Amino acid sequence: MPPKTMRPNPVMPARYRAGKPVAPEPETSEEEESEEEAQQKPTASAPKATSFPSAKALSNNLKNVDLNARREQAAAQEAARLEAKRIAKAKEEEGFETEDSEEGSEEDGSESGEESESDEESSSDDGAARRKMLRPVFVKKDQRKMNGVSAPNGKSEEDKYAEEEAKRKAKADAVVQEQLEKNAAAKAAGKKQWDNDEDVLDAEAVDDTDGLDVEAERAAWKLRELRRVKREREKIEQEEAQIAEIERRKNLTPAEREAEDREFLKKQREEQGDRGKMGYMQKYFHKGAFFQDDAKEQGLDRREIAGAKFADDVNRELLPQYMQIRDMTKLGKKGRTRYKDLRSEDTGRWGEFGDRKGAKNDYMDDDRFKPDKGYQGGGATGANAKPIGERKRYGDETVRDGKRPRVED
Amino acid sequence: MSSHQADAKALLDDRGYSGQLIRGQNPAHLFEKAVRDRITESYYWKEQCFGLNAATLCDRAVELTHIGGTYGLMGKPTPFLCLAFKMLQLVPEKEVVLEYLNWGGDEEDMEGDQVQVDDDEERARRGEFKYLRALAAFYIRLAWEPVEIHKTLEPLLADFRKLKRRTRDGFTLTFMDQFVDDLLTKDRVCATSLWKMPTRMQLEDLELLDPRISPLGDEVEDLDKEDGDGKSMNGEESDGSVVSVESRHNGRHRERSFSYGSESD
């Protein structure tokens, strides 16, 4: 029964309040009584949902017992059962038992076959509505015919369950068996448990079995051994040669040593070849210290970028001063330096002293700074023309009292 | 000797290491930190190298199929490298390592007559497990003293068996004598920077070693007599390829000599 109030909170039990009735009022009780009477009448004749036939119905049936009628009833029941079976089979896919078939199956036990006809009609009428999912209704155990297969076999539930279990177990066993076989095969092939790599093919590509061709192996070994011996010998000879060379140079005089060095350097320069002259403001690239061997392999170790000329090389002298930079990538960037080259940045006067006599003095050419007109005198002019006495000479006799103030006695 | 621990915690402990030292250092430091980490995080190390001792290490080494350092993009270590690291942890005794090496050098001289007859027998005597031998050689190069290294590894230059080597990009074929030669001369083998050993010449000068007598011995002298210096060798063919030996470059000597010019007074 749905709760009387549709509120989320459950209905609390009624509390006792003094002076107020506890039980529901008599008006509602009257309504209930009338409902009960109405219900009793149909129950007397044909209750649709009861499991147990009422006593009255039973006694009525017993009075009206008739063998022929009974036989007809039995036949009708058979037909009805078959009908119900068919219907149940047809609905196996949906898996739901409708109330119509429920009624048909239940009525067989208690009622006459007339109901089955109505059942047929009702079933045909509800053909369209059968697609809808109806409320599942409880079916008695003997009337349950869900699996058309198991019912005729007569197997009980437990047997079926056991069968399924056995099947599942068999499947699991098969899977485990497969795994074990795979492991064994892998082990046989040489892969180890810890080794997840798929390198078995690679490993097998290289064959390390001995004794395939003993002569060839022995010959190869001889070759290697000889190579090793030769290598050792060469090393020894090199060492000895070095020591001999050092000894020899020790015994020479310094002059001879220098002569030898000069010769060697000359030869070296010849071998190197002339380096081209660097263009105006050409960027300098150092050849680097590390990838010499790689460069040698590619034949690039004798490169000289100093005198290189590109096809689209622009002569920097023709550019405006702002663009005459070594590294054109810096053009327009804040990080670009104004440094051009050392010579232009130099502010000193290197090596100029002592070269010029009568150094140019622009100040004396200007008329404003020349001495006054008619100046022929010595060095003193203007305020310096005051007469002065003779110069004191060292060693002359001086009049000691010359400057003493004279005071009358 | 301290008790043997199943895992390598004591070995990898940088500060508190108190086990055996190799040249005054924690043996694990013979491998670089990066390589050490890769080894310790690999599945092979975790599964297979746990709780090994000298005997069970043999079992693992026997299952080896290739030598190599790290491979692949991620620098995954080979089982060979993991076992070598385990050996560094264990620091086995000299006799044990020699047993791994399993080189019956003296036996050959005694049975000199029979050697030529049956190659299979000889090979069987030399030891069936070449990867175990390669592992021992690697360990010797890392852990022992120079004189002993030379004395022990040089006889192996006569073993010409094939080895599979795993490089960064795949597998290559190499030979035992080639591998041993690399160990003796190169700086970096199998993802490890081998510690710098005095060269053979230096040791000879110090009178610690005798000059090496190649197993070819007589043949070398014969060749020298026939061809002289700087000529190509003929007759030695392997797999159909003709071999010629590089002639000495005379100019090289002069360049070298002049480079010392400034030093002398």
TrEMBL record, chain A:
Biased composition, class Basic and acidic residues, residue ranges: 155-167, 250-277, 338-373, 388-409
Record-linked InterPro entries: MFAP1, MFAP1_C
Keywords: Coiled coil
Pfam family of the protein (one): MFAP1
Domain Micro-fibrillar-associated protein 1 C-terminal: 123-347
Coiled-coil stretches: 219-249
Compositionally skewed regions (Acidic residues) per UniProt: 27-37, 94-124
Region (Disordered): 1-57, 86-170, 250-278, 333-409
PANTHER family: MICROFIBRIL-ASSOCIATED PROTEIN
Protein name in UniProt: Micro-fibrillar-associated protein 1 C-terminal domain-containing protein
TrEMBL record, chain B:
Origin: domain of life: Eukaryota
Location relative to the cell: Nucleus
InterPro entries: PRP38
UniProt keyword terms in alphabetical order: mRNA processing, mRNA splicing, Nucleus, Spliceosome
Region Disordered, residue ranges: 217-265
Record's GO cellular component terms: spliceosomal complex
Biased composition, class Acidic residues, residue ranges: 218-227
Gene Ontology biological-process annotations: mRNA splicing, via spliceosome
Similarity section: Belongs to the PRP38 family.
Protein function: Required for pre-mRNA splicing.
Name of the protein in its database record: Pre-mRNA-splicing factor 38
Organism: Patellaria atrata CBS 101060
